[in-house]
Write a structure and sequence with these properties.
The structure is a single chain. The chain is an alpha+beta fold and about 425 residues long. The protein folds into 2 domains: about 160 residues, Phosphorylase Kinase, domain 1, CATH 3.30.200.20; about 280 residues, Aminoglycoside phosphotransferase (APH), C-terminal lobe (Aminoglycoside 3'-phosphotransferase, Chain: A, domain 2), CATH 3.90.1200. It contains 14 helices and 18 strands. It has a 6-stranded mixed β-sheet with strand order 1-5-6-4-3-2, sandwiched between helices. Strands 8-13-16-9-10 form a 5-stranded antiparallel β-sheet. Strands 7-14-15 form a 3-stranded antiparallel β-sheet. Helix 6 runs antiparallel to helix 9, helix 9 runs antiparallel to helix 10 and helix 9 packs across helix 12. The longest helix has 21 residues. It comes from Lophiostoma macrostomum CBS 122681.
Length: about 425
């Protein structure tokens, strides 16, 4: 039913000034480019959602046929369910049973510039990973549509968030879920690249994505297109990225220009520049990690999710001893990086669990001897340093902890086990996400 419906939908893609495939609509509504969806209740624009559905999903049907339901507000998007009473032979079924489409609307206009990247990521992941992920039906990063706001419509992925499901699981089911999660990571490790970088934006829903350099700003809301990533060793990438961040910050300081992506907010809300010296300290740590064998030149680069936790993994209970992963969502931060990231991600997911010991045994059995070596200590620090180099320093706690690590290493010749090592995720307040 789902696939049959999707294939009948005309693909509408409009990104910025690109109007090559416009959405022909008699319902175009104009809103301010500075809207903030968090200030608006869903009921205030429910009718606009219905009109949008008629334009791009259900042409020829009537407004009375369309069903809409508010699901949740995420960090970046408002999520709304759209279905039609004609999608099921039994209109009395619950909306969950009949759900076909998911509408994602950015909470603010700035985030809409990221949509083409989200489309590229989802297309790439669906092609290379054998797990259900949301399919992109259409998106429009402008406001020239019935909604009057940017939007993306995705296919629905069935399942219950594993974080919600976990409390219902018995001991054997939790072990089964751990095996399924481990297999997911192993499958992601098989999606490889010869370069580290972000999955590029989709110029159309049919084109292939490219691997691009990580942008130096906090997100991808700037207008300049990143350069394609180049084949490198792990050490070469760490060295170069550290130098790029230092050079960019130096240029800003020398020119007395305030560049928001380089600023940090202190607890009082004041903005300031992280010290140039922190990048020198990170550079020395990178060399030390390489000498110790934690940044090997032979490391492979593989796909990682970037925000893998129980809220983004969907599953279902099969029987008294088995849990199945039914899908993985929210791939916004997916990219290619050292396989160390997958090992530390696995360790982070089980940390603090009641069955942590048993789950750790499962991880070691399935991931091999490398799991124990690459999940803790200096290898775990590699993952944290990767996050800092990729995202930059936009959080005072990250800056303070990085300083502590560098100071302790330089005075004692070893890395201090501070919060940067022990936290499964580091929170980036400007991005509003956990980076891992």
């Amino acid at each position: 039913m789902l696939l049959e419906t999707v294939t009948k939908v005309p693909l509408v893609m409009r990104n910025g000034d690109d109007d090559r495939r416009p959405c022909h609509s008699s319902h175009i509504k104009v809103r301010s480019a500075y809207y903030n969806l968090q200030d608006q209740k869903f009921e205030s624009y429910r009718e606009d959602v219905v009109k949008l559905a008629l334009d791009v999903l259900y042409p020829g049907q009537n407004e009375a046929d369309i069903r809409t339901e508010f699901i949740a507000d995420g960090s970046f998007n408002r999520v709304i369910a759209i279905t039609s009473q004609h999608d099921s032979d039994d209109p009395s079924q619950s909306s969950k049973c009949r759900l076909v489409y998911v509408l994602r609307v950015p909470l603010d206009f700035e985030r809409a510039t990221y949509m083409s990247y989200e489309a590229g990521i989802l297309k790439y992941v669906a092609k290379h990973l054998n797990y259900p992920v949301p399919g992109v039906v259409c998106f429009d990063s402008t406001s020239l549509n019935a909604l009057g706001m940017p939007y993306m419509i995705q296919t629905y992925v069935d399942g219950i968030q594993l974080g919600t499901l976990w409390d219902e699981l018995n001991r054997e089911q939790r072990k089964s879920a751990t095996r399924a999660l481990t297999q997911l990571l192993l499958d992601m490790r098989q999606v490889k690249s010869d370069r580290i970088g972000a999955i590029g934006e989709a110029q159309s829903l049919q084109c292939s994505a490219v691997i691009e350099q990580f942008p130096l700003n906090a997100g991808r809301t700037n207008t300049s297109r990143p350069e394609p990533a180049k084949p490198q060793t792990t050490l070469q990438w760490f060295r170069e990225m550290c130098q790029r961040r230092k050079q960019t910050q130096t240029e800003v300081e020398d020119s007395d220009l305030a560049s928001e992506p380089l600023l940090v907010l202190d607890p009082e809300g004041n903005q300031y520049m992280p010290e140039i010296e922190i990048w020198d300290g990170l550079a020395r740590s990178i060399e030390a990690l390489h000498e110790k064998g934690y940044l090997p030149d032979t490391a492979e680069f593989c796909l990682f999710h970037g925000d893998l936790h129980g809220g983004n993994i969907l599953g279902k209970i099969v029987n008294e001893t088995t849990v199945q992963i039914t899908g993985v969502i929210d791939w916004d931060f997916a990219a290619f990086g050292p396989d160390t990231l997958l090992y530390s991600s696995a360790a982070g997911m089980i940390r603090g669990m009641e069955e942590e010991g048993e789950c750790s045994t499962i991880l070691q059995e399935m991931m091999g001897p490398a799991y124990k070596k690459l999940s803790y200590g200096e290898s775990f620090l590699v993952s944290r340093l990767f996050s800092i180099l990729r995202k930059g320093i936009h959080e005072p706690g990250v800056l303070a902890c990085a300083k502590e690590c560098m100071k302790d290493f330089e005075s004692k010749g070893r890395f201090h086990s501070c919060d940067l090592l022990s936290m499964p995720y580091v929170y980036d307040s400007e991005e509003g996400v956990f980076i891992n």
